Structure formats: C-alpha cells, structure tokens
Amino acid sequence: MLNFLGQLVLNFTQAAKYTLKGNVRLSSVINQIAAIGFDSLAICLSVVFISAAVIALQVSEQFLMSGGDSYIGGFLTVALIREIAPGFAALALAARSGTAITAQVANMQVTNQIDAIDVLKVDSIGYYFAPRIIAGAISVFCIVLLAELIGVLGGCLVSYFTIGLHPIRYFNSVWLMLVMKDIWISLFKGLIFGGLIALVASTVGYNTKGGAKNVGESTTKAAIYCTIYILVADLIIDILFYMG
Hints:
Radius of gyration: 20 Å
Number of domains: 1
C-alpha cells in the first residue's frame, strides 16, 4: 500500500507538470467530464437522495417524540452537506466511472498503446492522467453541489409526508444551523475526491500487466483502492477543518 501511495504521488506530480506546461487540451477535459461526470450523474444523485430520505425517515419520528421536530431540517442538512453528499456521491462515482477509467487505461496498457505513445516521445502519464484528474475533480465538485440540493429537498419531502412537518419549519432550521463553512468544505471534498478517484483508477490501470483477465482484476482492485483512499482523505479533511 505504501508503494502504491508513492506511485500516486509521483504520477500526480508528473501530471501536474504536464498540465502546467499547457499540454492538456480543453477538448480532452470536456470529453472526460462527459464520460466521468455526466454518465454517473443519475446514480450519484439517486444514492444521495435515497440516503437523505432514509435518514429523514429514521429520525423524524424520534425528533417528533422528543419535541425536537423543529431541528429535523437543520440536523439532516448538516449531516448531508458535511458527509453524505460528498462521501456517497464520490463512492458511487468511483464504482461507476473509477472502474471504467481503470478498464480503459488497463486495456491500452495490455494492448501496448501506451508503449506506442512513449515511442512518440509523449509523456504517457501526463497525456492519460492529467485530463482525467482535472475532469474528475470538476465532475465531483458539480455533482456534490447538485446532490446537496437534491438531498435537502428529499429530506423535506420525507419529513412532510411522514410527520407532517411544514416546509417552512424545515427550511427555517436549515437556515439557522447551516453555515457557509460546511458548504465550502463539502465542495473542497468534492474536488479532492474527484481528482483522487481519477488518479487512483488511472494508476491501477497503468500498472496492469498481462491480458484481459488482468484488466478485470485491476477494475476490482481500483474499486477497493478508491474506497479506501476516499475514506482516508475524508478523515484527514475532517481532522484539519473540524477538530478543535
């Protein structure tokens, strides 16, 4: 795992240098945003909406019984924006687009397409990694923003239909408990998680050797690695911004 972490750092550094030299084409980034973000939008928003609805369903009656129904909206929104939206959206995107990135890069590796790029004196890591890292960061950033809105509205609907909580009371507690710091941190998480997913998935694919069987094994490995690194990154960000 430490060896793989070192590879991530080296690959990110190389991709960053490639980007700063102005070698990344805008068309490549846009194509990757469409492949990574747009194709995963529905599943990411569905996961966040259902998660918010389930939490609202579980806590609404408990809050009502204790007389704290006025805090349902604020409680759900803080939990949603701090953790559910960025975390669940990133995990869903890693399962959908992260494995797809690994399969693409791994297939190019085992069919010697990457070797052909190297022969042409093109930085293969920068060429394949940089557009995907940029696109991943932008995609998850935008998806998190939409997921937060969808999740808050979903919680409102569930609270209204389960315990009859009026939307005005719901959004009043949201307004009182939500702070801009939580929103900025959640969007920052989106940037980090998106770039990390693309970096991890591309690195796993780039390291693939063998044939079609190894490509399948790499996609499984990528899903596991992406999950681990997302959770670790989430923990580190929370420690940095919320501890103390």
